[in-house]
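Input sequence (759 aa), recorded before submission:
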Amino acid sequence: MRPSSMAKDGVRRLPALGTALLLSLGLFAPAAHAAGAPSATPTGKPATSAGKAAPRTIPVPKSPDTPQDDRPLASDPQAKATAPTAGSTVGAAKSARSFSAAAACDISAFTGKSGAALVQQVKGSGLDCVNTLFQLTGNDAKGAFNEAQMVTVANALRDSAASYPGDNSTSAGQLVLFLRAGYYVQWYNKDAVGPYGDSLKTAIRGALDAFYAAPHSKDVTDANGATLAEAVTLIDSAQENARYTGVVKRLLNDYTGSWPAAMTTAVANTETVIERGFDLPEFVSALQADPSFATTAASFVTRNSSLLNGGDLVTKIGIQLGNLVAHNELRAQGRPILKDLINRYPLVGNTGPLTMNLLWFAEKKDEGNCSLYGTCDVPAKLVPLVLTVDHTCNANLRIRAQEMTAQQLADTCTSLVNQDAFFHKIAKDNGPVANDNNTNLEVVVFDDYYNYSLYAWEMYKIDVDNGGMYEEGNPAKAGNQARFIAHEASWLRPQFQIWNLNHEYTHYLDGRYDMYGDFEAGMTTPTIWWVEGLAEYVSYSYRGEHYDAAVAQAGKGTYALSTLFDTTYDNSDSTRTYNWGYLAVRYMLQSHPDDVTAVLAKYRAGDWNGARTILKTTIGTKYDADFATWLKACAADNCGTLPTEQPKAPLCTAADTRQFDKNCRRDGVAATTGNYSYSFLYLPAGVQQLTITTSGGTGNADLYYNGGAWATTGSYKAKSTNGDNGETLTIANPPSGWVYFSLYGQQGFGGVTVTTTYN
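Predicted structure, token format:
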């Protein structure tokens, strides 16, 4: 019916997977809620670094479990409907999609009658019965709602409106609801119902004119409000938004917060008339000719500002004022109104949804005028207002959050630091690629998806129609800040989870240690099989999660390995990108590690064509048959394991069995339940990273590190407490001198190997 006036800017929308880390006392949740890949940019290709998105800006899909929020978001492409509104919003009939209560309604009684008989049938039926007519299709739709039938009912409403008593005793509500149902059904069934033309336009104008002229249509009562609310919606259904701006102004001007519920609903329904009116040229012309409409709506907001809470009618109607600056003809009216409202109310709290949505219009629809609105400093102001938690894990990792407990912060830091060590075991890199200055990562955590959508677009200038965003930026630029902008998975509470954390942290590590240059450089040839496949592999393997979806795909044998080497964001869906990327990377790491090493050597040097030659010429199709065999085994849950990553470190030589050195191990470490095996080592100045690992043996040993003091369960700076003896701690920039760590007997353990390395 009408294209949205809130079309989004062409911001990069690259798919990434919804994998997530459950950070709560070492418990991890499976990443089983990946949504389909977001839509591409208008060209069908990822946006380039020349656009607003920084290089290597990777969005993450929203979880399908993300709760719906009744607070509006101007940036949400789903916020604006196109078809007429369905079903009743007040009275006995509440929804066009709830038909069971009126299953006995005889549809043929409407489709088989016309003229006075049809009018009598409509007026004599209950509202619930009339409400079921929204579901009609085919011949029933034509029989009930062809133009002649609609004209008949519209004229009946016109004729009865003069004596409208302010309640539904004359069945005005049924007539209005029937007309609404007709517009709705005709919108979806034009071929069956037929066109609506001038005859109906004349009739519906006569009906609405007469109804709104009736003195009792202004009664401030629930009885009147039940019919009035439907009549307000009918204005939009008939696309008569421009003709009835005076009705909308009257309702907004008269409304007070003490109005009864049905009358409040009638006022709330003006939002639809206003919002969708902006798509009609005649509505825009009407507002241009009558500036008092805009000032009346603005006064409605300021007069009722005590009601603002984000999900209220004042917020929702107030946000529509932003559409004024989306039209050249109305921008002069809109600018002072938006400026006043944006600066009048706080950016956070109950007024945040109003101010941030109006700010969205000012920035997206009146670009380059932040000075005029006095909003140029808003991004900088928002960071401390919204992200009240500022926590440093270590010199390489910082967390900014809306709300996280000390334990959640500690567990998040420990998990990410340990994942760092896990990644390097797989990648076998020799340090960062050349010219990469992304020495640290900032993890931004909003409280939930709504807050992410409300604030992140302005704070970080990103698209928020996704589940999070990783920004690599330009790693060659000194001082560049890599950042993962995320939100909590609120639908999993009371469990704490940062949506997509593990997968996206792998992107940071992969970009720093495997992929030379920025994102666009890595997209010169198809590299997605590795980029997304590795992120999946590390995420699932590190967390010890079984990747059910990938194993199920293996059984289908859909793709040859040589085909997966060609995967791009353009030619793949989420299944190929993530499930099959995981399978390809896992197979290559396990079965052909030397080939992976050769390909990574090219990636790390930025020799994309050289890597492509290895994949498509040196390897080509020669592994396809073996890959197919491996897939069958994997489908039977026998996917294999990685070969040993590195040869064992030499045994430590110090006489004191508690003492370790730069690169050595001790075997047979043991302690009884509730007791410790204490250890220490001496670090020279300048150590950048210390790694302590434990493996093998029996029982359950937990690993604790405490810098310059003995490490215990009550005194530690980092810990690794998995359910077995496979523990890893990576300490960035540890202090020089003696440092201490210990193994605690969660369950009596023995035969454990402990290894220390540093660089």
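Checked by second reader. The radius of gyration is 32 Å.
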